[in-house]
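chain below, 195 aa
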Amino acid sequence: MNRLHKKPGPAILRLDRTWRNQTMWSAAAFLPGYTTQMRVGEHGVEHMAYLGEDSEIGVLAWATARARWGSLLSEDPWVQAALWQTLNPVLTVLAAHSYQRIGQIKIVRKIYDQLRERGLPVPFDVALIALGNTPSGPHVIPGYPWTTRGWYLLERTRYGKALANFVEEKLAPSFWTTLLDPPQKMLDELIKRDC
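prediction:
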């Protein structure tokens, strides 16, 4: 992380753990106003949470588990309030992928618009699905998907195929983006996309 960088924004977190005898690291964004909590297991990053003042870890853990095995979508007022009132970054990413699976892109665009209106950082996956193309701009962070599934969606976009192919062979079988033994060139490229 560049200490001279004064503006709040994303950073690359390197986790020095082994996974099947290979160095494993994960990409995560540290967002203004949120504390990051992660759990790393045998298959990479299994759980990621950004905890703001209004966030509840129980909702985030439940949502990650639901999204991993099916869909986050729920009519439960507890979940709906967590999504629309706090617009927690993890919930917005999980919701965007869940809505995209059932073809509800208009709702993802609504999430994207809400984040922009409130001046909150927009997770790459949310912008990717909402815009239907490779997103860019200082409000979109980081410059690559948070989820493994996001890389496969990125590969289908007009300008994202090269980046997705560049990373594909190093993706761990995890829910959140986790790279196994990435070459320095790949690290440099991803960090450069965050600046």
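Strands lie at 17-19, 22-26, 35-41, 44-51, 122-123, 140-141, 178-180. The CA atoms of residues 40 and 46 lie 6 Å apart.
thats it, cya
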